[in-house]
Design brief:
By secondary structure, this protein is largely without helices or strands. It contains no helices and no strands.
Length: 155
């Protein structure tokens, strides 16, 4: 599926475990509950894609474009989001434990209740992001931009 054009496709619940979707166009695609564990989505276009409840364990999303994507409750444990654009993405209650998010853009992203334990957020842009109730225990966020981010005492 390298460089595949799947914009607007209904892939809800699809098993794409380990698929090579490098550079694929999945803008507006419905991947609700899809299994993308270990898939390669490097440089993929996922603008406003629906990935609610998707399984993205260890998935490579480096430099992927996820502006406005719905990742509510998605499992991103150990995922590689290095340099990804998640501006205004909805990551409420997503599990990003141990994810590599360094250099990613999460400006105005909604991470309320998300699990970011042990995540690497080196130099990530979290300006104006919603981090209320998010778990940042042992997260490595040196150099992260947090201006205007919504935090609570737990953070």
């Amino acid at each position: 599926f390298h460089r595949a054009i799947l914009s607007g496709a209904n892939l809800s619940g699809a098993n794409l475990n380990g698929a090579n979707l490098n550079g694929a166009n999945l803008n507006g695609a419905n991947l609700n509950g899809a299994n993308l564990n270990g898939a390669n989505l490097e440089t993929a276009e996922l603008l406003e894609a629906n990935l609610e409840g998707a399984f993205l364990y260890g998935t490579n999303l480096s430099v992927a474009n996820l502006i406005g994507a719905n990742l509510i409750g998605a499992n991103l444990i150990g995922a590689n989001l290095y340099g990804a654009n998640l501006e205004e993405a909805n990551l409420r209650k997503a599990n990003l434990m141990g994810a590599k998010i360094s250099g990613a853009n999460l400006e105005r992203a909604d991470l309320e209740g998300a699990n970011l334990e042990r995540a690497k957020l080196l130099g990530a842009n979290l300006m104006e992001a919603n981090l209320i109730g998010a778990s940042l225990d042992k997260a490595f966020h040196m150099g992260a931009k947090l201006q205007g981010a919504k935090l609570d005492k737990k953070n």
